[in-house]
Amino acid sequence: MKLKTLVLALVLASTASFAQKVKYSKEEIKKMEQYLFNEGFNMPSPKKTSTVILKDGSVHKGFCSKTDSKKGQIFQVSLKDSITKKNETFDADHIAEMYIYPSNAEKIAKVTKYMGNIRNYSTRKLTKTTNSDRIYFVNQTVSLKNKKDDKEFLMQVINPGFDDIISVYHDPRAKETGGVSFGYGPQLGGGVIKSFYVKKGDKVMWLHKDDFEDNYDFLFGDNAEFMKKYPKNSVEWDYFSFLVNEYTSMSNG
Question: Which UniProt keywords apply (predicted)?
Fold first, then answer.
């Protein structure tokens, strides 16, 4: 009798889950596939003035001659002071925020990569790849890939403007989904970034596309209206930037 009850409960749960699935129009899917995060950059420009703000409130400006990283994340920054010309080195655990400019070499490489994938033309803005604005980094304590001991790094915020509830940080070691190319022509499909670092509340985690469904309720489950409109069995990892933006907008009214 207990077995029959358990089976019935599972069937009902499965039916309820199926009933929640939403079918989106082509226009809606096209909108959800738009990549709204900023481009992630790894190399600072040594020719433009960077700004480092320490935890004690002091501000230091200079040319960023060197950054030391672990698994791609910056833990130390070297500046040549723009006034005194002295070289200064700052550890990430002393830095609150940092603003730097991307190197021209990396921007050129990213433009080439952008042009090499047809999918980018309809989902990304080339202007974000050639962005001349400063890049925002913030001190964050994180476990790299959820495996290492917690440590403070300077991590690039890639959703400024809609990061007040969920902050998304660039993963310099992230891989991308594969596509298909014929000969020397542009790649068809693929190019979707597979992982980011994400913060909500006091929790910071490395979020991989394979773990997206398992963490969906944690990320968005406190907004019933959002969950009804975008249940996790109806969306894909490709929509992540849209979902974060939409969730933030709906949560803020």
Answer: Signal
